[in-house]
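U., I forgot to send this yesterday:
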Amino acid sequence: MVSRHCAYCLIPLEADKVKMCGGCKKRSYCSRDCQVNDWGAVGQHHKQWCKEQICEEDIDWEIRETVDGKGLGVFSKRLLPKHTRIMVDRGYRKIEDVPLPFINALMPHEGTLQEKWDLNSFYREESGDNLGIRLARVNHDCRNNATNKFITDLNAFILIAIRDIQEGEEISIQYHFYNDISTSKGYRDAREQVIREKWSVNCLESCICRDKVLAERIQKAHELDSMIPTMPMKTEEQIKRVLKNVDLLLKESEQISNGIMALSRTYYDGFQIAILHKKTYPLHKMYIQKYLESCEIVDSKLSSTYQQALKYYQNPSIHRNHF
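Result:
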């Protein structure tokens, strides 16, 4: 009977074949060779993540067939509270770097390696196309309960719960965001065609992504987000006026956007605006504290983004905007 899966080569393991990581006591392997590979950059680089309390397959989540014909999906095996780091998956940046058995197992089953790569990889402007083998099993839902980010300097995807996920619930992400306030209306309007043509996702008329009232709110939030950097920020009163708009955007984003990842950039904006004037300087503390917390959740303490945020938290005067 299958007990675990090898975290590196992904083969199913019976209980008496499981070799556990001696550090986290959660990550499992089929052999010493697989553990060595996974410890370094060939795999997850578990040396970095061993003490980070990351969820693991077969303990916290599992891959199994869905009930709606989508094929395989990722399901919670216990309650996963909001902001839980569900998965850290090594990111492959080139198709030739992916071990053949890994990519061969992906959809489309009869497709070429390039077709499998194109279907399952994620594009990010800062890092190009990247593929996570386990992340590729997470299905799309416009009412997603998780989100993912590729951390370039760690060469890893992090999958994060954006609300409490109940035991047995399928874990889902958006392949293409309908509620990203940082993107233009044209980009958001093209989304439906993109997800239909690439992933065969056909949203019903009742889908949240087609809610016209919500779409108007998202557009207004986008316009506010675009306006904030253009506002005058020389006097104390001007900066306070801008910060009121930052607070308004944070409140709106919390209700309509995709969780902590969307709020992170606005927290940072609030910080760098507040430190422009000595009279508004004390207001920076809330923004940088929230930004640091969001970086820990989304990027982890291991990332260069978190380390830079920590430096600003400890010494705001090193920021170029400091009065």
